[in-house]
Write a structure and sequence with these properties.
The chain has two helices and no strands. It is an all-alpha fold. The chain has a domain at 18-58.
Length: 74
């Protein structure tokens, strides 16, 4: 029997929601604030870039709308 990297019997966890990821990132950032080490500064920069990219992806996924889309005609 061939062994593959993907086993169909193993349930796949859904990816976390955006707000959960941002909350985790915020928690890590608060931890790094008090850690006086160059690696902490690098991690802060990486997390900042990651958060910006998440927000940019969210904005880019929005559909363009106009105000009249929210009012029904009688």
């Amino acid at each position: 029997m061939a062994v593959t990297m993907f086993d169909e019997d193993i349930p796949v966890e859904p990816r976390p929601a955006l707000h959960d990821v941002l909350k985790a990132s915020s928690t890590i950032s608060r931890y790094l604030e008090d850690w006086n080490d160059p690696i902490a500064r690098k991690m802060e920069a990486i997390l900042g870039s990651f958060n910006r990219q998440l927000h940019l992806d969210e904005v880019n996924s929005l559909k363009p709308t106009v105000l009249t889309d929210y009012f029904k005609r009688a």
